[in-house]
């Protein structure tokens, strides 16, 4: 087994010709969020990856093996829930609210300007639909945020092959979102707001001057 203990985020500093010749390893998020795992590259080599704890491996990152060879990581497509706003019954701001509530539940989220992605969860899907959002199950790469202070945070560029740029193979068209008698958009939203931050009552005590 070939040991790998070095990672170059997005192959920074490597000549394009070296990246083009590099072997590849297609890995889903369940594997890439670990710092120690085994994989097989496009050359059929068994790799043992031992990275610093807390390291997140992103699509487009380059692993450097102990023999000096390079392996470019491709974010494998996987089943995710793609969440978009319903323009007929809501607005784009609904995505902000959804990200807030999902964040309160510590759910890994991939944030995009016009949609969110999370791993499949039927309970969360039902909650999101009750918030005027459209939820479809698709097969795409998944690159959730790593946290603002995470060493493996999601701050690198998006110009990698097989990563989370959007040149995905066409997926099956999602089922049409029909707003009829069975539409979930007329639910009471009281429960969705239970987690919103309530203003704190601040009491100001005025002290009377002491009489001497």
Automatic annotation (TrEMBL):
Renumbered residue ranges of the record's region Disordered: 145-190
UniProt xrefs under Pfam families: UreE_C, UreE_N
Domain named UreE urease accessory N-terminal: residues: 7-71
Biased composition regions of type Basic and acidic residues, renumbered to the chain: 158-168
A Gene Ontology term for the protein's cellular component: cytoplasm
Keywords on record: Chaperone, Cytoplasm, Nickel
UniProt subcellular location: Cytoplasm
InterPro entries on file: UreE, UreE_C_dom, UreE_N, UreE_N_sf
SUPFAM superfamilies xrefs: Urease metallochaperone UreE, C-terminal domain, Urease metallochaperone UreE, N-terminal domain
GO-annotated molecular function: nickel cation binding; unfolded protein binding
CDD domains per record: UreE
One GO term (biological process): protein folding
Function per UniProt: Involved in urease metallocenter assembly. Binds nickel. Probably functions as a nickel donor during metallocenter assembly.
UniProt xrefs under HAMAP family: UreE (MF_00822)
Family label: Belongs to the UreE family.
Protein name, per record: Urease accessory protein UreE
Organism of this sequence: Polaromonas eurypsychrophila
Gene: ureE
